[in-house]
Amino acid sequence: MPEYLAPGVFVEEVSFRAKSIEGVGTSVAAIVGPTRFGPLRGKPEVVTSFGEFSRIYGDIQNLSLGGTSTLNHSAIAAKAFFDNGGKQLFVSRVGNFAGGIATAADAAGAVTFSARFPGAMGNYTLEVEWRDSENLLRKEFVLEPDETEVVYLEATGITAADLTDVTIPAPLGATVAIRALAQRDGTAYNLVSPNVILTNGTLTQSVATIATSQLDIASMAGRTRQLTRVTLKTPGNGSLDDGTSAAIILSAPLAPTAELFTLTGGNWGNNSAIYGLLDTVNNEFDVSPAPINPGVAAFTVPLAALAAAPSNVRAIMAQRTFDLSVRSGGANGPVIYTYGNLTTAPTGPQSLATKLAAQPEKRYDQLTSPIQCTLDDGIDGEDIMDALMELFDDAAMFPTGISVDGPRYLISMTGGNDGAVPTASHYAGVEDEINGHSGFVALEDIEDVSIVMTPAASATTDGTLHQAIVAEMQKHCRKMRYRVGIVDARDNMAISEVREFRSNFDDSRLALYYPWIVIADPRGIQSTITVPPAGFIAGVYANTDVQRGVHKPPANEPVIGALRFAQDINRFQQELLNPDGINCLRSFPGRGHRVWGGRTLASDPEWKYVNVRRYFLYLERSIEKSTQWVVFEPNGEALWDNVRATVDSFLYNEWRNGRLLGSDKTAYFVRCDRSTMTQNDIDNGRLVCEIGVAALKPAEFVIFRIGQKTADA
To answer: pTM to 2 decimals?
Structure first.
């Protein structure tokens, strides 16, 4: 009661109407089974399309369970669910793994890429695509270089008198052309290249220089000469730092006799690209040794030397930032994920360790990011670059001949596998508050689910295992109360076999469907495949609930995607199966392929129809969820009247929508008064409300009686 302590006008809000009950959803499904990828533990995530399913749980390609290739029935069922009108699907992945996580690491373990989840799909091919794709090479002719600057010198008409400590070989003659790396030193050029190239037009020789080799500038007056300066331009995405990783891209491997070979004194190997670090202080390129550059020992290339091979040197590309594409199914497989703007720095927001973190901050990244990367402690950017270069596939990075695409930077991940065939215990799952629940246990925290299925279980040839998995689904449905399980018969079961299998269960929360369905192969490998019906039936359930309501039997509905059924069930065969609660899938001329049964596996005639069982679960769950406000209210006449009015309004609305049988007086009743509770109930805090509902049964057998009559009757 509010307190009134001072005079004034007080306005209070009160309610004069009963609480309302909102009907719960019944079209949310859950699938439990093996998939190609995705989390094995934790709260399952809802997916609303097959594309979203594929991003988290992998594609629709085959699984390899225990070394045997098998159809990915969980993924196929998920696709069938959405094709048949389903909107929301929870997935609890199960697996029988001993490891199974794909990895790729350099020999020292400096950089390790790992698939986020186990599975053969995790054997990805990673492709590094450098974002610094701008050619940094800049060449220009100069009249006089700066003091101490190294340039590429070409001059003709040089005599022995012009050279210090360099002897012109006799066969060349008295006047030669010279090509060398030269450094301005006052009034002379110091020849700094390991070798000097001399030629008389037809004969070429190289001679070793010594530290005092010079060309006097004054003596070169009247000579034909050309000085070429080679520098690096600043890329558009930021200045270059000393020690930046880069590559010299060649149009074709250098011949051992090439001038660039001679002037640098290094072995360039048979490579179309040379990798190393930029020395921006000395204007040099430090070539890294093998295995980054096969057949090459470390040496230094003055950038000016690149002017000696204008037709061979295509570009200098910095390798600082890159995109990492994840390809499934090999180097030419589709890109399923891309990490953008990564760097070789060991720390920072764009580093491998941050962008490919083992525990991403966002839930979406935890589910969809396919790989993670760990870096060894204490490494720097050069160590990371060296590790990446070691991981790159040599054949792709060093293509033979002239490659149209140029070098590709590919990393192959190996070691992923799909494990063995999951057992019934894997489907049942474990309760683990630390690492996350698994199997059916993982679905217990999700209230919305009302349909569950295990399509992959029926694909096993072990009938005992199939039965055990269905038993686990049965236990889950009974424990969660408001769920029904769709049971698949195994493939190619004879009528006697499916009847024998059905005899193992007596539960109104299970519905069995037979036979399997023939569909077009979504993998694109075969023309057709045969799959369990659970995914299709779950979609029919969900679509019927949305379009008509849960009171409508999910039968006499088309099976979208079915080409035919594995067995052609006729009327006489169904007369054997229908009384046992085995729902048949049948094809009818002119009416397509339809669900032709709507019974549960219950022996109790009160609960033999799927729609009656599911409708009562809907009523029970709706009333339970919307009357939580009653708890701890004063248990008296006012509360009883309120509860009675609340439930009565809800059932009246159900009757008005045509979901109950009879008039509003006979379709239902609600009692909550002294006739439903004793004083002992009240003293012990119990409120008892009795509700009776006349549910609609399906018109399973439609009978028209026709007889003759006389005209005057």
So the answer is: 0.84
